[in-house]
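Table S5 (text form). Sequence records supplied for joint modeling of the two-component complex.
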Amino acid sequence: MTAVYGLYPDGASAQQAVNRLRAAGVLDRDITVISAQPMEDYEFGQMDKATWMWWFACLGGLIGLSAGLGLTWLTETSWPMDVGGLPIYAWWPNTIIIFEMTMLGAIVATTLTFVLSALWPQRGRTLYDPEVTEGQILVGVEHPVDELVSELERALSAPPGARVKTR
Amino acid sequence: MTHPTGSRINNDLLRPLLLTSWRFYVLVAFFGAFVAAGLIAWLSQIFFGFGISGLRWPVYWGFYVTNFVFWIGISHAGTLISAILRLVNAGWRRPVTRCAEVITVFALLIGAMFPLIHLGRPWLAFWLFPYPSERLIWPNFRSPLVWDFFAINTYLTGSILFLFLPMIPDFAVVRDRATGLRRRVYRVLALGWRGTPKQWHRLETAMQIMAIAIIPVAVSVHTIVSFDFSMAPVPMWNTTIFGPYFVAGAIFSGIAGLLIAMAALRKFLHLEEYLHPVHFENLGKLLLVMALLWGYFVFNERLVTYYGNGPAEMAVFRQTQWQSFAPLHWTMVFLNFVLPLTLMGIRKFRTIAGCVIASIGVIVGMWLERFLIIVPALGHKYLPYSYGTYRPEPVEIVITIASFAAMSLLYVLFAKFIPIISIWELKAGEHPPAPDLVPPATEEHRLGDLRL
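The corresponding structure-token record, covering 619 residues in total, follows.
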């Protein structure tokens, strides 16, 4: 068996299922919750919230800033041309290029962090049911120990409206 | 009116994707014909040369640069407005954001085409890119035209990603509903999305960061477009007010474009239950604010010129106020100020129809504004020997019309293949928390309930 899970019609039932799995000794990291929309009003919706994404965005911005500085400095000093009496390396106009590249760096770094941290396939984590799309909330355990399956099924079937499935 | 839930939202918003009516083909053929005509006009311009356009000394910037500035302005409808509404967590934004963000991407793509169309030899467009050529001459980074390249590309990249990321959960919805080839395509686009709390948190954090990053970029884009003018020693261009004036005008025309798009979607895709009159009313109020702001900037610009009484500036001023460009100028003032002020200022007229009429007026008015900034000033520079006129030729008119058709065509195609309203954002809040999970009401909540 690769997974045992329940489908729940609302957040309150899903929360109960998560609480019962915890009571049965399942760790948070082993519980899979899947929903068709963010469930931030529920405690289970707060799992895995910590992220370094802001820091990576800042790092991306810093890389973009450095690239902008480098590009403007290298190009303007390697072929020094007089343009309307401006200095060869003119800070004011170059600020625009540096600003745009800083923001581009932050945006690209954010996207990369999102893809790598949220969409990159995790080994053994493939549980999904298309009924989630229709509004059901999935709560389950992947690769459960065989001796625990019946206890998990009991825990998952207790909340109102539960439909327990195995795979 | 009951709020649609779960499966109903899926059914309503996926209907245009899964079912194709004859109207879709008619629309595609209609707009496609104009786009084809525009392409033929452009090819003929490349073949016969710029002589067939109305661009000649001293007015080298005509319809094409007007269209460039206009479309870059329209692009402010989406990402900027959407980012601001996301950051302030305005609940009514949910059905609006994607309609808006799409406008940004397409308007930027169309706007960015015009510098190429404006090039006599478009195959040399790569000279704009910052690369070391064989002669070791890099593009001049101190030129506003190169700033345009960086700003527009940053905004375009950011806007595409800002549009794409929140589409991923919706691709997963289509993946689960579709069959055959369509299912395979949407499975690839969904990038393995499942909907775990971790994925939702990461998505919302990413959208927050991008919203914060994209707002200054959006402001910078139109400021930099304004630098194309204000950095040049041309009468009535060389002014510090152009940056904020252009940004305000861009947001103004952007909101108008968004209102027209929303009304069309509501009508043709039967989205009455999702795009409510309140969405139009709220955006109508924003349109009113921007009309007032636009009037303020125009008054500032005109008064300072009039008071300064410089001979070159006054020559252009007179052209627009009382002489050959006066009919266009006063039409612009009516469409951009009087009409929206009347229709959006009086509550009775702030209906969907009122918003659409005001918005069409603003779109025309803002296009005229861009034209009136460019042409009269170039036709009346400092010395009378450089005075001249501009008369657009058919090739320019056809390409201009084609750009509007291209926008409509791209929008129709997008609405056909991607849910035009964000499904997951509409569903958010569909599962209200149980009473025992809701924190006790604060004093502010209780006061809020009293509707003080």
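Note: The CA atoms of residues 235 and 313 of chain B lie 5 Å apart.
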